Each structure stands twice: as structure tokens, then as C-alpha cells.
Amino acid sequence: MENKISTLEVENILIDVRKAYRLLYDYQRKVLDLMKYIGVLTSRRYEGGWCKFSQPSPRDGKGSLDNWAWDWLNLYTYEFWFGNKKINGNEIQLSVWLVSDTGFHDANSKDAESIETFSTVEDSATRLVFVIGKNTWHRSFNDFIPNNLKKDALEYVRKNEKGTLLVKSFNLSGFINADETRNRLQEIVSFCNANGIPEFNFIKDNLSENTTTK
Fold first, then answer.
1. In this predicted structure, what is the pLDDT of residue 108?
2. How far apart are CA 134 and CA 164, in angstroms?
3. Higher pLDDT, 107 or 207
4. pLDDT tens-digit profile of 98-111?
5. Residue 1's pLDDT is what?
6. Which stretches of 156-199 are DSSP H helices?
7. Is the Cβ–Cβ distance between 192 and 163 less than 8 Å?
8. DSSP conformational letter for 94
9. More confidently predicted of 121 and 151
10. What percent of the chain has pLDDT over 70?
11. How far, in Å, CA of 90 to CA of 135, rounded?
12. Rg for the chain, CA atoms, rounded
């Protein structure tokens, strides 16, 4: 016998959908505030970003109904680009990758449209991945991404004749407030100092409340 869903069941599902959209708004607003604060602390200007899991959301009047649903959920995995600064004759680049859900990567899934193949939400994580380059840069996320973003303590070092590329990741929960954000940045500075990028630094002094994370 075919199972039929009732109108009441649909209405209850749609209540969850509305809750999810409002939760996503609050989450994404806090992520954007965090990125602003990281830009202030590192004395860098945000210069744009790239969707790294899906295509960008279609522009007004564009797009196709065959687009992935993920194309309207760009912050699933996103690279925030903080530019290239010349310091002591070296070009120092910084980007921060938001991986909102490691489930696709952790399960080594091959099908982004089959969310049942992802790791469970309880066994996944939400990560920030910092990428710092000295006179060199990465080609793609696959240059340094492990199969399991949650369980691997991701620290990646690549040195060649061109320069040095460093990658270090954290759980997003490690950036819960301004003090913890500065603590994580100090860990990145120490990592950079230990691996040949002493030029990377940040503002350590307390800043006014209107520049801190909310």
C-alpha cells in the first residue's frame, strides 16, 4: 500500500523549514561578522570569495531549474579571500575556508546530491581552514584537503623553490568570541613562524566593541 503524507505532516515539515532558514540566516550573519573581525585583526581587506562546493546562486533573471539545490546554499563550503600583501619583499596571501558541514568530505562521498551518503551530522563537524601562502598559492581545495576533515587535525606544509604554503584548520566553535578568535590567530602565527612565514601577524591589542564578533 502506498504511504501518503497528510497535509498536517507537510505543514509540520514546513515549520521545520522556516526554522531552518532563520537558523541559517543567524549562522551566516555570525560567520560574516567573524570574517570582518579576522580582516580587522590581520589588517586585511576582504576582496571577494568563491563557492567551493557548488556553483554561485543564479543571478536575477538567470539560472535553470536543473541547477543543484546546493547552488542556492553557497556557504556549505566557501573561500573568503583576504588578498595579497607585500611584506619585506615577500607576497603573503591569506584566505579562510568555511566548511559548514564536513559530512561530504568525511564520507568520501562521490555524489553531492545523495545526502544519505554523507557522514551523519553528529559524526561531522563545522570547520574554518586558514590558508597562508608566501610567494606561492594553491590550485584547488584538493591540494591539501584530507579525506576526513573532522577527525584529521589538519596542518599542511608545502615548500618548494617558489615559496611556502601553510594550511591549518579549527572547529568553528573555537571562534566563539573575540578573545578565542585572537587565541586561534596566535596559534596560526606560531604555526607560520615555525614553518617559514614570520611575516604573517595580527593585531593583538583589544579592540573596541564595534569591531568584535557578536
1. 81
2. 5
3. 107
4. 999 998 888 887 88
5. 35
6. 178-194
7. no
8. E
9. 121
10. 87
11. 6
12. 19
The owner of cell 541547477 is 67
Nearest 5 degrees, angle CA 113-CA 149-CA 158?
120
Burial (0-12, 13-18, 19+ Cβ within 10 Å), 40: middle
DSSP letter, residue 120: P
Are 170 and 191 in contact by the 8 Å Cβ rule? The answer is: no
Give the pairing of strands 90-99 and 77-87: antiparallel
Q: Which three cell numbers stand for residue 184?
A: 586561534
Question: Residue 214 above 50 pLDDT?
Answer: no
pLDDT of 127 > 70? The answer is yes
Integer Cα distance of 70 and 79 in angstroms: 16
CA distance 188 to 38: 12
Output the DSSP codes for 122-139.
Answer: GG---EEEEEEEES---S
Cα distance between residue 155 and residue 54, in whole Å? 25
CB 83 within 8 A of CB 44: yes
